[in-house]
Amino acid sequence: MICNLCPRKCNAERNELEGKGFCKMGTLPVIARVAPHFGEEPCISGVNGSGTVFFSGCTLKCVFCQNYEISAYKKGKVLNASQLAD
To answer: Does the chain have fewer CB atoms within 10 Å around its N or its C terminus?
Structure first.
């Protein structure tokens, strides 16, 4: 696929596992963390927590990102759509 998903619109060629553009990401999602989430949004998270999924491969590279090591690099596990849904 030729990628123009992010604002960089680098027209990179991507396959399932890797890409040649700025992010170097493939077409399959890379998941760094899946866990319950508590506290920040009590009206949503309630007593059992809401779900949170941390994806890798963010192209923004914000200098103040609290999850920079996770989001900016290809850290985590590659999953297909069915695995992610589970």
So the answer is: C
> CB 11: neighbour CB atoms within 10 A?
10
Q: Label residues 25-62 b or e (16+ Cβ within 10 Å = b).
A: bbebbbbbeeeeeeeeeeeebeeeeeeeebbbbbbeee
CA distance 65 to 29: 20
In 3-state terms the chain splits into helix, strand, coil percentages (rounded to 5) of: 15, 25, 60
* Token reading at 82: 């069915």
pTM, two decimals, is 0.77
- The 10s digit of each residue's pLDDT in 33-45 is 888 888 777 777 7
